[in-house]
Amino acid sequence: MLEACVFATVLCGFFGIIWKKNLMMKIISMDVMSTGVIAYYVLIAARGGLFTPIASDVQPGSYADPVPQAVILTAIVIGFSIQALMLVGVMKLARDNPTLESSEIEKNNTP
Q1: What is the four-CA torsion angle of 1, 7, 28, 22, rounded to 10 degrees?
Q2: How far is CA 83 from CA 30, 79, 111, in A?
Q3: Cα separations (Å) of 58 from 54, 55, 61, 65, 109?
Q4: Are 63 and 42 in contact (CB under 8 A)?
Q5: Dihedral (C-alpha) 9, 11, 8, 51: value to the nearest 10 degrees?
């Protein structure tokens, strides 16, 4: 059931990127899709009975692999930086165009 919710999140983001014409909605859709992909990765990596590899006084039996956690943190940082870069691009476009609709921007900038 949880896999279906994660897959639905990825699909909502994917179809939002394709069908939405507003550039802000496309950026939000990309963020939703990125969240779904990260959630799917966490869902696959999560297993019961494993402890996080953090130094403490408790002596747990087995530790979780820290590599997927590092990959997810890297994906979150890269996703945030890409989103910030796209927002700057949209701000530049909004300065020159009265609308954020991609079809109108293409129409205004076609020679």
Answers
A1: -120
A2: 8, 6, 29
A3: 10, 8, 10, 18, 63
A4: no
A5: -50
Q: If you search the block for the tokens 């700057």, which residue do you land on?
A: 88
Q: How confident is the model at residue 100 (pLDDT cuts 50, 70, 90)?
A: confident
Q: Identify the H or E element spanning 82.
A: helix 66-96
What are the structure tokens assigned to 94, written together? 């909004």
Chain segment 52-93, per-residue pLDDT in tens: 767 766 666 677 777 888 888 999 999 999 999 999 999 998
CB-count burial class (<10 Å; 0-12, 13-18, 19+) for 26: buried
